[in-house]
Amino acid sequence: MSKQTNVQQGAIRVIAGEDLTGYEGYLVEVYNASNVLKARRPTSNNALALFVLDEEGAAAEYVSVLPLWPGKNVRVKLNGTCTPGEKLVLADTGTPADKGKVRALPATAGDYVVLGVAEEVGVDEQSLLVRPLVKLEHVESALIADAAAQTQDDLTDNSGGTPATTLAEITNAANAGSADVAPTANAIASLAAQLAKVKADLAEVLAAVNALNAAAKEQNLVASA
């Protein structure tokens, strides 16, 4: 004896958990409200909005919602533009007017719930022909550029001096005009120029390390989700 009793194919009738007037063709999610199944526009960018609103209605009224099924394409309101074959996810729910629309899969790194594939060229606000296809899609972070090539030159030390952490005064009254003042000053100037380049190189390295750390943290968050 079949266990598939009291089931139906196609659209179902549920109570609108909010005013859904004017949102026919938008995606909605169903949820539990005191053991009553209700429908509302998506509350997050990765909500499982697995139904398209087929017949609209005010809050507390019955509305008709059509489940997404790969065997039947549907028309859904589009945010932005798309091309045939592009994967579609929910539009950013941070913009109230876009809740329930779909958009082309963004290039921004993150995890997205793909809800369908575009079957035609789409323009903003179009009722786009969509082939439902539900899957999780991860967009990788952009690759970190290689660190800049090192700029410091090889510095040959023929000074015969003793390295120290303090640069002594050179051009004072006692040795002004002395024959060894200019080459000594030149040597220190050379050191100073190379140290400036080393500082710049280290800044590039630190920036690359910080970027790597940020990417690693992002990957850790994804892995732990």
**Structural class estimated from helices and strands:** alpha+beta
Strand content: 25-35%
List the uncertain runs.
none
| Sheet having the most strands | 5 strands, mixed, barrel
Distance between the termini: 42 Å
DSSP, total strands: 10
- Share of helical residues: 10-25%
Q: How many DSSP helices?
A: 1
- Which strand order do you get reading across the main beta sheet? 1-3-2-4-5
When the domains are counted, the total is 2
SSE run: EEEEEEEEEEH
Characterization of this structure:
This protein has 225 residues and is of the alpha+beta class. It folds into two domains: 12-139; 143-225, no CATH class. Helix content is 20%, strand content 26%. The protein is built from one helix and ten strands; from the N terminus they run ββββββββββα. It has one helix spanning 181-224, and strands at residues 12-16, 27-32, 37-40, 51-55, 62-67, 74-77, 87-90, 102-104, 110-118, 127-139. Strands 1-3-2-4-5 form a five-stranded mixed barrel. Strands 6-10-9-7-8 form a five-stranded antiparallel beta sheet, with no helix packed on it. β4 and β5 (62-67) form a beta hairpin. The longest helix is centred in the C-terminal third of the chain and has 44 residues, at 181-224. It is rod-shaped and about 105 Å long. The two termini are 42 Å apart.
